[in-house]
Amino acid sequence: MLSYQRLKHHPRALRTFTGLEQTACEKLLTPFAMAYHAYRYDQHVTKQSRQRRYGGGRKPRLASMEDNLLFILFYFKVSPLQAVMAVLFETSQGRVTEWIHHRSTVLKMALGKAQAFPERDPKTLERTLALCLSVDCIIDGTARRTQRPTDSTEQQEKSSGKKKTTR
Q1: Dihedral sign of CA atoms 42, 45, 49, 54 in order
Q2: pTM for this prediction
Q3: What is the 3-state secondary structure (H, E, C) of 138-151?
Q4: Nearest to 140 by CA among 127, 122, 157
Q5: In angstroms, rounded to a whole number, what is the distance separating the alpha carbons of residues 26 and 96?
Q6: Are 19 and 73 contacting, i.e. CB atoms less than 8 angstroms apart?
Q7: Do 166 and 148 form a contact (C-beta atoms < 8 A)?
Q8: What is the CA radius of gyration of the chain?
Q9: What is the DSSP letter of 41?
Q10: pLDDT(98) > 70
Q11: Could you state, in order of their start, the residue ranges of all structural domains in the chain?
Q12: CA quadruple 115, 26, 37, 98: dihedral positive or negative?
């Protein structure tokens, strides 16, 4: 099984799999653990329709917080198929889907507390930039092809001016 304990002795592999150095992973671990416990409390402990008390049932495969962080960082960095993730972390593809959903929420909470999560929604970008005192911003814009309009005036308005395509 792929684990943080094995990868921390191989800094190059850790950087390749997660995109972070060991010190950055360890720095992110504390906010991730706090966000993980807050998420678990909100989603599981306070749930009214429990069949068994909290803590009962099967023990988790990813027992350590480091492995949970490695799992979600590996998924976002490498973006493998979920079947591949299932083999690497010795579980089922359905469980990987569930883990990705939960851990990505936890990672967003953790990075949000550290004010390091990138903003993806352009509608809320101004509000996010207002929170940052001094930040350099890079916007990656790519021209995308669209269906060509039949009206000639619309064609001229929508023309990108390069490679005879519309934007």
Answers
A1: positive
A2: 0.66
A3: CCCCCCCCCCCCCC
A4: 122
A5: 23
A6: yes
A7: yes
A8: 22
A9: I
A10: yes
A11: 4-115, 143-167
A12: positive
